[in-house]
Amino acid sequence: MGGGIVTALDRLNLEVEEGAFFGIVGRSGSGKSTLLNLLGGLDTPSSGSVEIGGTLITDADTDTLARYRREKVGFIFQQFNLIPSMTALQNVELPLVFAGVAPAVRRRRAEELLEKVALGPRSGHRPTELSGGEQQRVAIARAMANRPAILLADEPTGNLDSATAGSVMDLLRRTNEEGQTILLVTHERPLADSCCRRVVELRDGRIVFDSAAVAALPETPR
Amino acid sequence: MSGTMRAADLFRYSFGSLGRQKVRTLLTVFGVVVGTGAIVLMVSLGIGLQAQTVEFFNQVDYLTTIRVFPQKRSRNFMNFGRPLGGPSKKLDDAVIEELRVRPGIATVYPAINVFSRLMIESEVDGKKKDVLGQNVEFVGLPESGMTPLYRASLVAGGFWTGDATEERLAVVPADAVLDMGLVKRFTTADGGELDPAKGDPVWNAVIGKSVKLTFNMPVTTEEAKDPPKEGEEPDPEEEKDEEVRTKKVTRRYRIVGVYDSRNIGMPWAPAVFIPLSHGKELAKYRGARAAGADAGYQALIVKVADASQTDAVRRDLESMGYGTLTINDIVEVIGYVFVTLQAVLGAVASIGLIVSFFGIANTMVMAILERTREIGIMKALGARNREIRRLFLLEAAAIGFLGAVLGIAIGWAFGQGLNELAQWFVKQRGGPEDVSLFLVSPALAGATLAFAVVVAVIAGLYPAFRAARLDPVEALRSL
Prior knowledge:
- The structure holds 2 protein chains of 2 kinds.
- By secondary structure, chain A is of the alpha/beta class.
- Chain A has one domain (about 20-45, about 55-215): 3-Layer(aba) Sandwich (Rossmann fold).
- Chain A is about 40% helix and about 15% strand.
- Chain A is built from 8 helices and 8 strands.
- In chain A, the strands form 2 sheets. In chain A, strands 4-5-6-1-7-8 form a 6-stranded mixed sheet, sandwiched between helices. Chain A has a two-stranded antiparallel ribbon with strand order 2-3.
- In chain A, a hairpin with a 2-residue loop joins strand 7 (about 200-205) and strand 8.
- In chain A, about 45% of the residues are buried.
- The mean pLDDT of chain A is about 85.
- By secondary structure, chain B is of the alpha+beta class.
- Chain B has helices at about 5-20, 20-55, 60-65, 95-100, 150, 165-170, 180-185, 220-225, 275-285, 310-320, 325-370, 370-380, 385-430, 440-470, 470-475, and strands spanning about 65-70, 105-110, 110-125, 125-140, 155, 175-180, 210-220, 245-260, 270-275, 300-305, 325.
- In chain B, helix 2 (about 20-55) packs antiparallel against helix 11 (about 325-370).
- The interface of A and B includes residues 42, 62, 70 and 97 of A.
């Protein structure tokens, strides 16, 4: 903002396999949010490329990016980011509304998803009538509405107490076990370690740790 | 899954958003209500007045009348009725006979309109005395010109029978039918003015009374030698001027009927109907100082058998080289006047809508500031820029639409109220029953609605484009 260019991410190479539960950890300012925005098609890199599920989104125009977000990714935010004037059900339906799905079809899908996150009976409630954990579960249901190739979760438990955070992480883990690729961004290394199969740590826009690389190293001779 | 947002959803979300800030939405809508209400009220006044006027002329009697002139006449607004020059035909009795047998024509007679001073004689203390007169139009009327409309306008007495011939000219005094307004000039026995309602037997009291017509006729040497005609009183006050010698001519008439000029279209010009032959004679006197007596009539009146033939007969007459004017020409010119009036009224009233334009723009800018984060969320969920833009444009249009519907309804209702008031007021004064000054036509309602929606959409353009261009990352970061 003050002028001058901030290089949030620098010469970063990352590959996420299908079905992975991938963790990115790092302190604030490490570039993890920027990475997430790039992967989510909300932002474009000044150089380099992002390819997800066979779609190259680097030089895409706004419509293509919108389509990419609509079809390939699901966002889960720290702030939940539900639309306050809509009920839980309407929030979950929203991505399908933008995709032009018929009302009856998207309603059935949203109800299924709310059942899945154990909020079936609360589908008519507005976000203000739900607890933080419940709101995040609605957000997770919404993120999965369009059957995305990848779920991008940005500090999904950052605004929750530890008990609630645990249940939200359990939900994500179960979702991953059903085959959903998830990319988790957090500043808490233990949280990532507890559930992610691969963890990458970022510092100043570069990868300083990769659990996959560590595993591949030959054992140090004693 | 790659489809675009459904139209029904666009409408649902846009209209739904209006309910989120109810008070602000309502206030903005009221701005549009005032603007559109003012337009509807003011323009409907113009339309109502026009309809009132046109309806007034929309009577068979007028629709079957063609005025024929020696020369082509202008039908333009700016110089309506003015002779256009070119060849001139003479309108005389031979022409009348010729035209009378043309297809579609029921009757033809010369248009005799003479302006002269009408003196009213009244008996005060048993002595006949002239009271204040006024300049009125004397209209020569043949029996064929006494249409049902003219007859229906009579409130007392009746028209004379038969066209006055040369012999009848000798009868002193001649017959005349006066307008109610003129009759009011007669003072009653107790000195008060006559002002009874229509249909009151009091009107009958003036039947048989006499009035005088006077004018100063320029005297040429020839005329001065003429012996005074019958019915012309020897005039002791003959004015003798050094330069222009004039002679005061007086004619006496007996009132045989009273009519209501408000019913036959010329309430602003009270007239006296006299037999055509008398009219011709008067015209000859009055026209003496103009062209020679053989110049022919200034105009003829052609009555068509059926209103549907008016256009055909007029074309026939025009092809013969005559100039013509019909009531439709007048209605058309009146149309220009009223369209101009409506445009002016509409333009003045549009100021309200222009003010509400800023209200809508302000409301939309506020809405976008409040919903910046939401816009970011919608973008993250895959909304295209153009969908965001449409959502906000539709929201603005909805404000315009709601305001216009309410405004049109309120403007209409207000006009109806004023109509009621006007009807009551007119009735109090014995005028026609059916008065509607304010008339909301479907075209006015439709145009107002469209105008308001267009204004609202234009007001929403800047905010909507701004919303669509928001950077999703920044938008998600906002509160």
